[in-house]
Amino acid sequence: MKYDFDEIVERRGTQSLKYDTEAKLWGRDDLLPLWVADMDFRTPPFIMDAINGKMRQGILGYTVPDDNYFSAFTGWSERRYGMPLKREEIHHIPGIVPGIYMLVNALTSPGDKIMIQPPVYHPFRQVTEATGRQVVNNRLKIENGRFVMDYEAMERDMPGCRLLILCNPHNPGGRVWSAEELSRLADIAAENGTVVISDEIHADMTFPPLCHLPFAAVSPAARNNSITLMAPTKTFNLPGVVSSQAIVFDGGLREKFFSYLDNNHIGGGNVFAYAAAAAAYSPEGEEWLGQMLGYVRGNIAYIDAFLKGNTPKIKAMIPEASFLVFLDCRGLGLASQGDLEAFFVNDARLGLNTGTMFGLGGEGWMRLNAASPRSIIEQAMQNLGQAYAARRF
Fold first, then answer.
1. Could you tell me if 31 and 378 are in contact, meaning their C-beta atoms sit under 8 angstroms apart?
2. How far apart (Å, rounded) are the C-alpha atoms in residues 364 and 313?
3. Cα atoms found within 13 Å of the Cα of residue 57, Cβ hemisphere only
4. What does the alpha-carbon distance between residue 132 and residue 174 come to, in Å, rounded to a whole number?
5. What whole-number distance in Å separates Cα of residue 85 and Cα of residue 248?
6. 204: helix, coil or strand?
């Protein structure tokens, strides 16, 4: 491959959230941290070149998006998703979670109901609760080893909900929702006047032969009743740059949200945000992405084979998108989620996300980040295998 994903990049002592908070989170600093969703691969060189180009200008001043930024993203959207975009339908936002926070404040009032689909990315719940809105849980079900939506419960509980926050593709389960699934959700939301916020940050990491389908591209009902949030940051390992996009097709909804961003001066990017995104959404970005996905897919296959051969009571929910693997540990028979987390931390010396942080349905699960050099993944599995054998599960 052109890019070296086997390289070990030392991240300890670099103000890394993933590595430098072990003692604070788990009370020890000898773990392999495979939790927060950033990669242990170098940020692609063409993105670093774009950032260095801004550095060489010598002044880190206020920066605005240019034609290159918009054309790079609109070209990416049309090539990869068949979704043409106009410049006026796009607004930069400083991160997906801040974007959700801004949308909640722009489109709802304290006390309003917002539907989420747990187990799901925990900021959906946290932002809703922190802004004084009511969480309505539409809990996902498991069928044939993957998450599916509960439409009967959705139809029962959606009336009165101002928003539904959709994770598309799903985190932590890695589901790539089908056209049929998204279309049915869109119809129910439209019937109830519930606007859908579609978090599509993992969209670019869909594994072939599956293809990501933007929620807004599903049907006229979806297009006219949604806001799509996308970003290159997870895909190209530049989350610290916080560069994201909001896409709104409906004119009235767009005016309401974009004017909220502009009037409050909260939609702008930092000095590196636009150049980094434009570099990511380039032909070089497509080449790097293809190689990265192939490597990560190999890591996931290795994890799955290891678990089946060495720790059969721990089962991987194989993701259809992204580098996150949800581990079903219910077969271990541990008494509590705390006991399960203690097993991973103190026995296996692994720092993972505990399943309960994702809400209802997360009990007995752990989330593992597979975007590391193979040698790190192999060491993690060896640690787990030894701990499992010692406990005689």
1. no
2. 12
3. 13
4. 29
5. 10
6. helix
293 Rama sector, left if φ>0, alpha if ψ -120 to 50, beta otherwise:
alpha
Task: State pLDDT tens for residues 357-389.
Answer: 999 999 999 999 999 999 999 999 999 999 999
In Å, what is the CA distance from 127 to each residue of 70, 123, 152, 195?
29, 6, 26, 16
Residues 83 and 216 sit within 8 Å (Cβ to Cβ): yes
Reported pTM: 0.97
CA distance 334 to 343: 9
For the chain, first and last CA: distance in Å? 40
What gap in Å lies between CA 73 and CA 69, rounded to an integer?
6
Query: What is the DSSP pairing of strand 113-116 with strand 134-137?
Result: parallel
Write the Ramachandran bin of 342: left for phi over 0, alpha for psi from -120 to 50, otherwise beta: alpha
Strands 315-317 and 324-328: antiparallel
- 231 near 201, Cβ under 8 Å? yes
CA distance 371 to 300: 9
Q: Per-residue pLDDT for 1 more than 90? A: no
* Separation between Cα atoms, residue 93 and residue 229, nearest integer Å: 9
**Token pair in block for residue 301:** 């296959």
Calculate the CA 167 to chain-centre distance.
8
What residues contact residue 63 under an 8 Å CB cut-off, 6+ apart? 54, 268, 269, 270, 271, 273, 274
**pLDDT tens, 98-132?**
999 999 999 999 999 999 999 999 999 999 999 99
Coil, strand or helix: which one is 174? Answer: coil
Structure tokens belonging to residue 304? 């799955």
73 phi, psi to nearest 5 deg: -75, -45
- Please choose, from the candidates 225, 244, 281, 215, the residue with its C-alpha nearest in 3D space to the C-alpha of residue 107: 225
- What's the DSSP call for residue 132? T
The half-sphere exposure of 6 on its side-chain side, counting CA atoms within 13 A, is 5
Structure tokens at 313: 């009571």
Instruction: Cite the beta strand spans of the chain per DSSP E.
Output: 32-33, 90-93, 113-116, 134-137, 141-143, 146-148, 161-167, 195-199, 226-230, 244-247, 315-317, 324-328, 350-351, 353-354, 365-369
